[in-house]
Specification:
The structure is a homotetramer of 407-residue chains. Chain A is mainly α. Chain A has a domain of 236 residues: Up-down Bundle (Methane Monooxygenase Hydroxylase, Chain G, domain 1), CATH 1.20.58. Chain A has 17 helices and no strands. In chain A, helix 11 runs antiparallel to helix 12. The radius of gyration of chain A is 27 Å and the shape is elongated. Chains in contact: A-B, A-C, A-D, B-C, B-D, C-D. Chains A and B meet through helix 2, helix 3, helix 5, helix 6 and helix 7 of A and helix 2, helix 3, helix 5, helix 6 and helix 7 of B. Chains A, B, C, D: Heme-dependent dioxygenase that catalyzes the oxidative cleavage of the L-tryptophan (L-Trp) pyrrole ring and converts L-tryptophan to N-formyl-L-kynurenine. Catalyzes the oxidative cleavage of the indole moiety. Chains A, B, C, D: This is Tryptophan 2,3-dioxygenase. Chains A, B, C, D: Belongs to the tryptophan 2,3-dioxygenase family.
């Protein structure tokens, strides 16, 4: 019966700081309780602004087309949610920047917020189902009035991509022009400056590089892993060679050779640099090692939440791709493929963006290529290598319950 | 790569009316094509208003709480969609009012728009999943700043309920006050005036009353159905009475008696009036007959789309109930049940609104109670009873492709 | 509290035919009512078979891996639903074959069942979210035991694709082998024989070719449309040529030329045959005309449900594509891209199947390319061209309530 | 193009143990690779059993009703997923029982599996949308053949409820009979014996009771919290009393009194016992303290994953309730409310099960009632109270990578 979830409950008693609100109450004596002091629902949400922003171009031009309202509201809802994703993204980047997530106390916050972004993206993917209740014919009726407004102009979506780490030089150009050319003035600057900041990808990379256990003079995960794998492959080969000759044996040997190639390449830093330069890898060599380590030891208390973070990052990547794909499908439905008109169509362009090149955390997906039997994973002696939480070392003067965002 | 579905495609060539836009083009010579003439994305969507409406009360009071942003954006997204639902609802009511949907050409539009409302409600139900990423603790941190803003103040949700037909006198009062008391001035008037207009329920009722085939001097569906059912029940009874005595026989007889009661009540107009007066039925007796008729003959071309409409109306009812139920769950999670504090809690109140009393089209659900074997349904001879589409009678001067909303 | 939706309600009274059940009741005297006569839940659903079919290969080989159970259940759920989709698909094809859907009374059934298929596909797309709770590491632990079982062996999915109309010769070969090579014996034959039957695409094509209004000596939709469009384009050109020279004018002229090309191609039957031969169109020329006609006149009572059918068919196409795309994403997550190992990886193969070539009803999507202003659409005079429902002509001896599936 | 997600990839090389499979390969020389050795897709999934289990009662009785197939498949899909939920549930209960989750290394597994259950329940809630494509009329046509099979007979759902901890004595009786009466023989015993085992609720309770920090002679969380809250409330009262007399003041004082009551009750062990005995609380007093502690200190590395677990448990509770609610809605749609027939209808019964009494982890929801300002939460000095992970103390002989399920 209420249009709003759980706002409500009367004035909160516990005010940690002497508040203005109390005085206001004084001045409102005798007024109906529901609006006594404080703020009312519609004002709080600034509904006067939000709900007066639906102006139909078709109506302006004297030919009101019913469905244009859906078009506007859908896009506004997308933009609202993009704004909130940016809010979460900036807060996560901040947590990484300010604390180097040295303080593991922040990890729950980081994971929860990245998870929240995935939940929003899921909703945004669902949202296409609403837009798709509009048929191509309905759209055709007002399409002309929108010209030349174009979806390529959503500043927030571009910001979002940039801040996560979609590589500028890997973007598919549209009609041979850089995507940033669509923006001007303030917008163009906002975009440019955001590209100067550390991306989520870069911050995660730096964090992965600090994974405890990578130290060559310590646990030396990478060295131990390489030794184990080489030994393992050698033994496999030995075993296979003893088999009687057969087609099966040849197949197995061929497979083994491929595997050996894969791992030889993995342990070759120059190969990694080469792939980096081509954009086929995005994480530094050391960060890649950290990510693989977190995968192998994900059940260690120290690595449980970091593992969840890696999983959530992949989820974001995947959902952005699904969002783009659903977008492509909707466009196809609305304007057709325009095959035969010549010139790159909007549809064909969008189609090309649903590619692995646009994946930011593709390296995390590709870790699956480097899995090995558990027996090959270097053993961990937690008595010796503790991978302590930094949080357990902070000094007692730390004010553990300061407002989260003031830090 | 684009933040917006399928806006785009360059200026549309086909302009049925000489447009202003052309002249504007003239004045924009030499400007970058992307913004040449017309309107740009951000302006079109009025993003300056929409994206500047997120003001955190906690931040205003010097204690920025991160999650308040989610709270605001979620509610704004709800309100945006409520606005669009009202847009569709008003257009459907208009189609009923202006045309009495005498013109069956409007039926596709009516069904499509009601269907669109269900798709939006599905999204709104999903949307709780995003809000639920906020824990009770996160909410607690800024709850005090919202006071006394309350969800009971969402004007649009109340309008929506009123326009669909949630009965004013069946609403559960909150803290013994009428829900309209939460609104003041302009809002209160808007609400009051909307309550004077014909509700969707009433318009559907009138439309159902006109179902072809109900005429007593024509096909006389109701009379024929009553006769068939009475005959059928009599034969069932006869058959049962010939069975040997057994527990099974007694059970079957008891069941038959119940069924007979159900149908005796169905064919008793006074009983219907009684249920109407108690709010247990909402449709007039004749409309109920029309609805049952459409159900039984739904495969007749004449009744296919009407049947889809009845189904879609039930869907709306069900989804509003699910929305309320999910709302209740979220509230429980956020503020607990407050059992033991005395006074009706927000949770307990909301719980009570998820009741069948709030169903508007409950009568359509209850039709399932009155189904009978197909053999009992009065036969239709389409040579005699054609139930013609009015549309096929309209005169040729009718301009069939005038703008839909100008009629 | 119940594991089953709405089974229940006691013995139904109304039995149109004297049933065996009654006699059974006699023999069950004194037995607890819940199992008296008839059939019990577990037997009805054959749960002994369904719930004993989860045998973990890892467990068989002495190394039980917990997550293999999820893998099995997920795939079994997919197969269950595939079976049901085939059930609906076959019934729809039957309705088309037996009745040529000449009897419009079947249209509601056809549309409802196609719609149901889309609802199932939506669920199947969602279902990946459950499978994705399994990480690459979890999968790696039992992957070896599955060899060489392969998803390319799902007979039902291939049947489903074949019956809808995925073109055999358009399929991407896997490792240079025809997809049918994966099946043997009975399975291979089932597949082959299904490929001999009329596909949904073909049946829809035949139905579209019969669209009333296409007759050259009748309404002659295609001829009238061509004339209107040619006239319209000529007038546009005339208008543009009178403009003062400018960049804008040149752009508009270029656009107009493209549009003219598009429509010239549309009205060229040879061009259509050429595209057909390349697999870029799938519908016959006449069927394409019918589809466009239904789009333009969708609000006519006669065309409302046909229009819904076309929309639902596009939905199926889109959802199958989304299913494939989600599949690809899951595979990427589970086994990586295997880039660098050489040889076509499963991932790369799957990636290639998410292409427009696999769309069956792509022609319906591309109709959006051929939309024109409503003023250009040939006017319909319903007094002259009635497009009557065949149903209204059927003779009175037709048994309108025979069991639907006995026909 | 494949009916199966990511099965595939050829024989895995890395076999930790000498496998039978190799020898089999030998015997299969020359056979097409796709079926060489090992197991094929259809056999692996035992599709012969799963896909032959759809027998329509209506067809058996000579009157095939198309939609009965949907009814069967939907229920079988439910049962398949119920089986998997039981699989996860049993594994989680095992992890608790065997390790007392003393070994925090299991926490990721526990949380992930509980999370997976929530993902499945989400799917099951969605699944009603498929069933709802069947109208009441479609159902009516075969309803009689199902008698007396009843959803109340889903053994697995009852097991699932029992194992999670739905209280036997809190269940709503159906037609005055205990729900267990619906089962007989083996099924009844399975159910009974499952009720002897420790429920998830009990195991979580025991785990919560061991929360580090509850020790009275240690950090003494409960004692400190009580002292802080009492002090806080006293100061609030003091502050309020200094206000000038006004309606506002009275309101605030009334609120404060209610709050004081709430907390007085919270710190009263006898009150807790009383609520326990009435079934209004389910967790022991000490477990409740542990849960509140985890909530307040959820950002401590030690408590991050435990906090996620509590959240996931609430999610399960909520989703089971939503499942029941959606079930009720579907039933209402299918069979109506049967109002007027007398006797408790299936619908009315189901309606009653969607109550808070059926919530298992209601105590966790109600924690929201006991939140206090962060300043009132006892400060934690991590130098003194380390809440160490047990895992960090295990001895080096622990085989950290033994197969997970052999422990």
């Amino acid at each position: 019966m209420s249009g709003c979830p759980f706002l409500g409950r009367k004035r909160q008693l516990f005010t940690s700081k002497p508040s203005q609100a109390e005085e206001e109450d004084e001045s409102q004596k005798g007024i109906n309780k529901a609006t006594k002091g404080g703020i009312v629902y519609g004002e709080y949400l600034q509904l006067d602004k939000v709900l007066s922003a639906q102006v139909l171009q078709s109506q302006q031009k004297g030919n009101k087309i019913h469905d244009e309202h859906l078009f506007i509201v859908t896009h506004q809802a997308y933009e609202l949610w993009f704004k909130h994703i940016l809010w979460e993204l900036d807060s996560v980047r901040d947590l990484f920047i300010k604390n180097h997530v040295r303080d593991e106390r922040n990890m729950l916050k980081v994971v929860s917020r990245i998870h929240r972004i995935t939940m929003i993206f899921k909703l945004l993917v669902e949202q296409f189902a609403v837009l798709e209740t509009m048929t191509a014919l309905d759209f055709f009726d007002f399409r002309e009035y929108l010209s030349p407004a174009s979806g390529f102009q959503s500043l927030q979506f571009h910001l979002l991509e940039a801040k996560i780490g979609v590589a500028d030089h890997l973007r598919v150009p549209y009609n041979r022009r850089h995507y940033r050319d669509s923006f001007h003035g303030q917008e163009s600057e906002t975009l440019l400056s955001s590209e100067q900041e550390a991306t989520l990808l870069q911050l995660v990379e730096q964090w992965l590089e600090r994974t405890p256990g990578l130290e060559k003079d310590g646990f030396n995960f990478w060295g131990k892993l390489q030794a184990n794998i080489e030994e393992g492959l050698k033994m496999e080969k030995h075993k296979l060679e003893k088999m009687e000759d057969s087609e099966a044996k040849e197949d197995l040997l061929a497979d083994l050779n491929k595997q050996t190639e894969v791992f030889t390449a993995l342990f070759d830093p120059e190969r990694h640099e080469h792939l980096l330069s081509k954009g086929e890898r995005r994480l530094s060599y050391k960060a890649l090692q950290g990510a693989l380590m977190i995968n192998f030891y994900r059940e260690e208390p120290r690595f449980q939440v970091p593992f969840q973070l890696l999983t959530a990052l992949m989820e974001i990547d995947m959902l952005m791709t699904k969002w783009r794909y659903n977008h492509v499908c909707t466009v196809h439905r609305m304007i057709g493929s325009k095959a035969g008109t010549g010139g790159s169509s909007g549809y064909q362009y969008l189609r090309s963006t649903v590619s692995d090149r646009c994946k930011v955390f593709g390296d995390l997906f590709n870790l699956a290529t480097f899995l090995v039997p558990r027996a090959w994973v270097p053993k961990l002696n937690p008595n010796i290598h503790k991978f302590p939480y930094m949080a357990e070392c902070y000094d007692s003067s730390y004010n553990s319950y300061s407002s989260e965002d003031s830090d």
